[in-house]
Specification:
Structural class of chain A: alpha/beta
Number of domains of chain B: 2
Distance between the termini of chain B: 68 Å
Number of domains of chain A: 2
CATH architecture of the largest domain in chain A: 3-Layer(aba) Sandwich
Strand content of chain B: 5-15%
Order of helices and strands of chain A: HEEEHEHEHHEEEHEEEHEEEHHE
Number of helices of chain B: 23
Number of strands of chain A: 15
Largest interface: A-B, 39 and 49 residues
Shape of chain A: elongated
Structural class of chain B: mainly alpha
Strand content of chain A: 15-25%
Radius of gyration of chain A: 28 Å
Oligomer: heterodimer
Helix content of chain B: 40-55%
Largest sheet of chain A: 10 strands, mixed
CATH superfamily of the largest domain in chain A: LarA, N-terminal domain
Distance between the termini of chain A: 97 Å
CATH class of the largest domain in chain A: Alpha Beta
Shape of chain B: elongated
Chain lengths: 332, 544
């Protein structure tokens, strides 16, 4: 048919006419079908419901071990090792085949000496301990404030953690999921996916000065699981911290205070802002841990830190050191 | 159709240099360097093509009375051109290669006779010499406006700031649905593709550039023009081609025509790239020939050959004439003073014109910046953008920092490392400040000064706690300081708030505060250029 010159004296055969009708009918029917299907889909767009999941990675309390330990006068590796030993060893926290996410503070484009990010040696030691405890995967990640590639490189954490065998995951804008945090002020926020898919989460903050809260310690480190416009969190920082801490309950918190930023935090930059404390805190009570550090280096009582009181009354931990034995170890 | 060995070699050379160029362009970005910790530097030689560019070198000499590091390498192109002619245009230049390729695509408007006619020499091909003369005269007056038309500037600017980001959008819009698929196989494929493309060409994160669409369309338009007239850009506008054409006048290598055997079949004109009259009976035009060797292969009688030390009639110099030369001189001499008679430089600087760290003072900056966009391409925060009117007409497409989109990272110096002409002089992280070894007494490079809009700032205007700006301020001691104030909220309650202020003696103008401000569309803290350390006069404080 096609290609042959039209010849009026030679009308279409029945077969050709039928084929033409079939073709037309097929197109019309599929267009109508597609239209019907699409019109059924045309509903007012509603955002997909965010997943609701409190992330509770805590392990059962054991009276045999303290809920908070302070180890002083050592190097990052030995401090971390001793602190975990005091708590019963990493095998108490990390089981075989666990996917462990370690969350250091890798927020700023600073080097380790400037004490704006968690000490890389301490992070590497925790990675090694996780492997020894039989973890399936060990992931080190954070959602940086400054340019993430620079933060991960210059903090030394990328190199140290990779050397220890961890997967280092940079914050990829496409890997965030909307999550209902269920907080008082924090409702639906994008959370970086690795934090949602972990079996165990180890919080590894660094102790630093902060203008609004006095000090930024363990609970403030959860800012770094969020994406989105987290610059709004400052407006109600204490409630935000409690909301985050009630959403994300870590297996264990290891606070790096090898070097701390005594002023000009949380960015620092100047070595005059840095004090060497050669200390690591570790514990399963995030409130007590923050309270101990704030008192020790900024002389802040829980009364001056509203978020600690709110967190304590929320059942996240205690600021009462009479009821909470702290195991302090001096190395060397 | 490759009919001779030389054409094949030429084609390999073109593809090779195009790939090198594109690879260097893609690597003009912050890439993870294994083992890199405290210092991040640009390791790949991404300025390479600019260093080979004699036009940039000559203009740099005329405008800056000096030759910036690496530009001496341009002799590698200039000296062989003296001997061999414009081989660079036909064998190396990636802009030429792209046009060569587009120009050889089948086109309705270039068939048979039309095609032969379009490849005959045209008087308008001399326009490029006028452009060159005007550009060099402008350079003498201290303007690097030539950079608008330099082929590498054009390429990096167009591909780096428009086509690559567009490519990113396209690839991501295909990959993201794949990666979010519920079917494991599709998801895995998407993720693998993403990893591979990320390592090769994709940006770490999607970049966006001011005027990207204009730069992209302009470039595509230039390429598309080759569909109508082969290498229209090379033949009629490219000032680098003009320079090399002028330089090649004494070359000892050229086209030998055996006039006796030529039967004027016109086959040599079918694929001629330069429009340089390879056909017998008329003199060969040396300054137009791109040495592509197509004519040699297409001659059925083997009458054409490239040879050393020929003795035959040819047109060695550009056919420009006194009038056109004077036009070029006059245009160049008039345009810079006219642009400078306008406002912009000196008296009425645009407040938002923030130059990258290490940038020279504005007159020196304009006498060096070739608007190539390397600094914008490399900036890891996507903070540098081509200007439209902020720097005046003379500063079109020069870089400006837009803190709302990206601030200047406190110790990053990549833009100063990739700048081919020293408009952004190479600086060290120490000069920028707040790396180990820098103290509160050092004087870091300042890009401007931050100011508060107290009518919008939350603690100032809305009785709401905030000071994210203070948290982000990378200066030590912080340039943003806090005063506790009693304010009354809408319910009449007294509240104690922390209100931020700027100490101009400490502020470096990096724009981190502006970037971090929750009032995204018009931040309550913003940076203007006053106080930038490159300018001796644009200062606020007496004691600085």
């Amino acid at each position: 048919m096609a290609g042959e010159p039209a010849n009026p004296s030679n009308p279409l055969t029945r077969r050709e006419a039928m084929l033409q009708l079939l073709r037309l009918g097929g197109i019309a029917a599929s267009a109508a079908g597609a239209g019907y299907w699409l019109s059924g889909r045309s509903v007012r767009p509603v955002p997909a419901p965010a997943e609701q999941a409190r992330r509770d990675h805590r392990i059962a309390d054991d009276d045999q071990w303290p809920k908070l330990t302070v180890v002083q006068n050592g190097e990052p590796r030995t401090l971390v090792r001793k602190a975990l030993e005091n708590l019963g060893g990493m095998s108490r926290f990390v089981g075989r085949q666990d996917v462990v996410v370690i969350k250091p503070n890798i927020a700023w484009d600073r080097t380790p000496e400037q004490a704006a990010n968690t000490n890389p040696e301490a992070v590497a030691e925790v990675v090694r301990q996780c492997w020894q405890a039989g973890a399936k995967r060990v992931i080190v990640t954070d959602v940086s404030c400054n340019e993430p590639r620079r933060c991960f490189m210059r903090s030394g954490i990328q190199a140290a953690a990779r050397t220890a065998g961890a997967e280092v995951v940079l914050p990829n804008p496409e890997l965030f999921r909307e999550v209902e945090l269920g907080g008082v002020v924090l409702k639906t926020w994008p959370v970086f996916t690795p934090f949602l898919e972990a079996d165990k989460i180890i919080n590894m903050p660094i102790a630093k000065h902060h203008e609004l809260t006095g000090a930024t310690l363990g609970m403030k480190n959860w800012y770094g699981i969020l994406g989105g416009e987290r610059n709004r969190l400052h407006q109600q920082i204490h409630q935000s911290l409690v909301d985050l801490a009630s959403f994300m309950l870590p297996t264990v918190t290891i606070l790096d205070a090898y070097r701390i930023l005594v002023r000009n935090g949380p960015t620092g930059g100047n070595l005059e802002d840095v004090a060497q404390k050669k200390t690591v805190l570790a514990g399963t009570d995030p409130v007590a841990l923050d309270a101990w550090a704030a008192k020790a280096w900024w002389n802040l009582d829980p009364e001056h830190m509203p978020y600690l009181q709110m967190a304590a009354s929320h059942g996240l931990g205690t600021t009462d050191f009479d009821t909470l034995p702290v195991r302090v170890t001096q190395l060397s | 159709m490759v009919r001779s060995k030389l054409q094949l070699v030429r084609r390999i050379s073109q593809i090779f240099f195009l790939l090198v160029f594109l690879a260097l362009l893609v690597f003009t970005s912050l890439r993870p360097t294994p083992g890199a910790t405290s210092d991040i530097h640009m390791r790949a030689p991404v300025r390479l093509f600019f260093e080979w560019d004699p036009l940039v070198a000559v203009a740099n000499v005329l405008a800056g009375h000096a030759l910036y590091r690496g530009l001496l390498w341009s002799l590698l192109i200039l000296v062989p051109t003296l001997f061999l002619g414009r081989f660079f245009c036909g064998w190396i230049c990636p802009m030429g290669t792209l046009q060569h390729w587009v120009g050889s695509l089948p086109s309705e408007s270039k068939r048979g006779k039309q095609r032969i006619e379009s490849n005959r020499y045209k008087r308008w091909q001399t326009l490029k010499y006028v452009v060159l003369i005007a550009g060099l005269v402008a350079a003498c007056f201290g303007s690097m406006a030539l950079g608008w038309l330099d082929p590498f500037s054009l390429l990096v600017r167009s591909i780096g700031l428009a086509l690559l980001p567009a490519f990113n959008v396209a690839v991501r819009s295909v990959l993201t649905p794949l990666e979010h698929s519920h079917i494991a196989l599709i998801k895995a494929t998407g993720e693998t593709l993403h990893t591979v493309l990320q390592a090769l060409v994709l940006d770490f994160r999607q970049t966006h550039f001011a005027q990207g669409i204009a730069l992209g369309i302009l470039f595509l338009f230039i390429l598309a023009a080759s569909l109508r007239i082969t290498r229209l850009w090379c033949r009629s506008i490219c000032p680098l081609g003009a320079l090399l054409g002028a330089v090649s006048r004494f070359s000892i290598f050229g086209l030998h025509k055996d006039a006796a055997s030529c039967d004027k079949c016109n086959r040599c004109l079918l694929n001629c790239q330069g429009g340089d009259e390879p056909i017998g009976g008329v003199p060969w035009r040396k300054s137009e020939c791109l040495m592509c060797m197509n004519c040699v292969g297409s001659c059925p009688h083997s009458s054409l050959q490239f040879k050393f030390f020929r003795n035959e009639h040819e047109v060695a110099t550009p056919d420009i004439g006194r009038r056109k030369a004077i036009t070029g001189l006059a245009a160049g001499a008039a345009v810079v003073p006219l642009m400078r008679a306008n406002t912009g430089m000196g008296k009425s600087r645009e407040a938002t014109l923030l130059r990258p760290p290490g940038a020279l003072d504005e007159p020196d900056f304009l006498s060096r910046c070739i608007r190539c966009g390397e600094c914008m391409k490399v900036c890891p925060n996507n903070s540098l953008h081509p200007t439209l009117a902020e720097a005046g007409i003379q500063g079109l497409w020069t870089p400006t920092l837009v803190p709302r989109i990206g601030y200047c990272e406190p110790s990053c110096v990549l833009c100063s490392e990739v700048c081919p002409t020293g408009a952004i002089w190479q600086i060290t992280p120490k000069e920028k400040g707040w790396v180990v070894g820098v103290s509160a007494q050092s004087h870091p490079i300042r890009l401007g000064t931050a100011f508060y809009d107290r009518g919008r700032c939350l603690p100032w205007a809305e009785a709401t706690e905030c000071i994210v700006c203070e948290e982000w301020c990378p200066v030590s001691p912080k340039a943003i300081y806090i005063e506790e104030a009693q304010v009354i909220d809408s319910s009449g309650k007294t509240k104690t708030l922390k209100q931020p202020r700027v100490d101009p003696s400490r502020c470096v103008g990096c724009g981190a505060c502006e970037y971090a401000c929750p009032l995204q569309e018009r931040p309550a803290v913003y940076v203007t250029s006053i106080g930038e350390s490159r300018s001796p006069s644009a200062q606020i404080l007496l004691n600085k």
